[in-house]
Amino acid sequence: MQTPQSLTAYRPYWAKRFGVAPFLPMSRAAMEQLGWDACDIVLVTGDAYIDHPSFGMALVGRLLEAQGFRVGIIAQPDWTAADDFRRLGKPALFFGITAGNMDSMVNRYTADRKIRSDDAYTPHAAPDKRPDHAVTVYAQRAREAFKDVPVVIGGIEASLRRIAHYDYWSDTVKRSVLVDSKADLLLFGNAERALVELAHRLAKGAQIAAIRELRGTAFMATAGWKPDESWTEIDETVPEKVGAGGTAIAAPAANMGTVIKFMARTTRGQTVIRLPAYEQVKADPVRYAHASRVFHLESNPGNARALVQRHGTRDLWLNPPPLPLSTAEMDYVFGLPYARAPHPSYGDAKIPAWEMIRFSINIMRGCFGGCTFCSITEHEGRIIQSRSEASILREIEEIRDKTPGFTGVVSDLGGPTANMYRMACNDSKIESACRRLSCVFPDICPNLNTSHAPLISLYRSARQVPGVKKVLISSGLRYDLAVRSPEYVKELVSHHVGGYLKIAPEHTEAGPLSKMMKPGMGSYDKFKRMFEAASKAAGKEQYLIPYFIAAHPGTTDTDMLELALWLKRNDFRLDQVQTFLPTPLAIATGMWHTGKNPLKRVSAGSEDVAVVRGGRQRKLQKAFLRYHDAKNWPVLREALNAMGRADLIGSGRRHLIPAWQPGDPGRFAKPSAPLRKTRRP
């Protein structure tokens, strides 16, 4: 990969002289107190403004402030008119628009398309403080407020909707959010590099329409546009065509030399891959699945090529993904002068998202697990970006010294996963050439450095910080990696588990697991033995809390029955369970929408994937996860009879559910002894 310009190498903008704001201003009065007559950049977000690096707008705002720009924030504006978008006046450079830390549709609706009663990112958890498809609505209102100010969209909603995508809530294939929002530029992924470069170039007088080469950006262009005539276009609009879509996703390690040579040939010169057009993927599920496959194959920043997709009479152009931040850059971003608190205007209002993370620390970004139902890799990438131990320890000290209510307990040292800190490919050339979507599926790649030594060192150092009584690990543990380090498991279980440890097998059966790209239960069983042995040695009574998903693509009713029987054999009664939610751009969402498998080459005759779409069957599969709930017994009895498994209905230990129903005067047996009840932490 090329060496990018460091985030700290830019000459600060002239407004650096104003210094650091206690909080980025949200009103004209606050601007005047800082001595500002205008903002250079106005950031609009669907979340409450919490000045902490776990919240995107705070991180972006403080980063731009450190570059010398005057940054204002409009949080959760009234989107019914443009007036609120004029609150801070006309920005000198651009509007930056985000829906917040979550996609606005995921934030507002459940997997059953029901409106949620609360919003964790809003004071008092109040609902209805952001619109559906917030990026589009906010961008349109910003344009109405000041027609000549550039509009830049970013954050996870923009990232996950950057190409034509299936939208679960409308049950349609929607255009790129860039088309509907009419924004000038879309920044996807962790966009610090593109954002800083863009701000400095606009400050020097560049026109945003001329900024076309930044990695991690997308823009609209006239049909057939190319940077120059040296560019070559590869046509991937036809699924049966052998090109990028025909390339193997998981190349065996023994063939990596061949893969490197292949990538050297295919990336020579300037290349752009043409995806099937919006109109094509909307009309043809096979082309949608093929486009999903090609898109995900072009996700490694070391070898990804530009993508183009026709929307009507124009082309959507996507540059390759952003290059990862170095450890020094990660330390810089997380070490900026955050107030580490909600904006004072919220008073004593409780903001659940803040309450959950205020004593936790993000130690890394990215995930190489490749779980198909998860959108982390589509946004943050597969290359792990880690902070230094010293940076993390300094943040622990800041929490101790600055965060009200700290009792000595750090609630988490983690990120997308608990235990990928500082893990990377052993060979940078192999990493730059690799096209695998997962480093750990179907097996852990032999080129992956899975050492937990840096994490063990971090845990031990964190426990020694004066004033720290306990350091918990709350992020999801990747147990197939953990079993490779008995020392890590011992360290974790002995010192960092608060009675319960959450892990995510997601399922027990091979069919669903293969579509999720998750390991088999052998890794779970091995980790469980290690966990229990370490707990016993430490003299602690501790439990694993497994997470499971119902109705994931590739899951049959029989699969869910086998999972329910596994839960009963292992004495698990789950209080909270998850039904598959098709989020934009995820591979599993492509499976759910098309009934095809983008993990393999796609054609009309390629592998079909079993999909649960109907509400009744989705409820049935969820009911299997809560087999112990009497409310689910009638539907489970009906299903078991239909499946020819009436032998599982009865009052013995071998039965899944009883034949009697609470409140039924005709019941003929008492329920069997209650099982151990477990809750998610």
In short:
32% of the residues lie in helices and 14% in strands. Mean pLDDT is 92; it is low at 242-269 and 668-681. β10 (231-235), α8 and β11 (270-274) form a beta-alpha-beta unit.
Describe this entry's structure for a reader:
The protein has four domains: 246 residues, Response regulator (Rossmann fold); 88 residues, no CATH class; 118 residues, Transcription Regulator spoIIAA (2-Layer Sandwich); 186 residues. 32% of the residues lie in helices and 14% in strands. 49% of the residues are buried. β12 and β13 form a beta hairpin. It has a ten-stranded mixed sheet with strand order 3-1-4-5-8-9-13-12-11-10, with helices on both faces. It has a three-stranded parallel sheet with strand order 23-24-25. It is built from 24 helices and 25 strands. It is globular. α10 packs antiparallel against α22 and α14 packs parallel to α16. It has 681 residues and is of the alpha/beta class.
Q: What labels describe this entry?
A:
681 residues; alpha/beta; Rossmann fold; Transcription Regulator spoIIAA; 3-stranded parallel sheet
Summarize the topology.
Elements: H1 28-33, E1 41-45, E2 50-51, H2 56-66, E3 71-75, E4 94-97, H3 104-108, H4 134-145, E5 151-153, H5 155-160, E6 165-167, E7 172-174, H6 177-181, E8 185-187, H7 192-203, E9 217-222, E10 231-235, H8 256-266, E11 270-274, H9 278-283, H10 285-297, E12 306-311, E13 314-318, H11 327-334, E14 341-342, H12 352-357, E15 360-362, E16 364-365, H13 376-380, E17 385-386, H14 389-402, E18 409-410, E19 412-414, E20 424-425, H15 428-433, E21 448-449, H16 453-463, E22 470-471, H17 479-482, H18 486-495, E23 500-506, H19 510-516, H20 521-537, E24 543-550, H21 557-569, E25 578-579, H22 587-594, H23 615-625, H24 633-642
Parallel strand pairs: 1-3, 1-4, 4-5, 5-8, 10-11, 11-12, 15-19, 18-22, 23-24, 24-25
Antiparallel strand pairs: 2-14, 6-7, 8-9, 9-13, 12-13, 16-17, 20-21
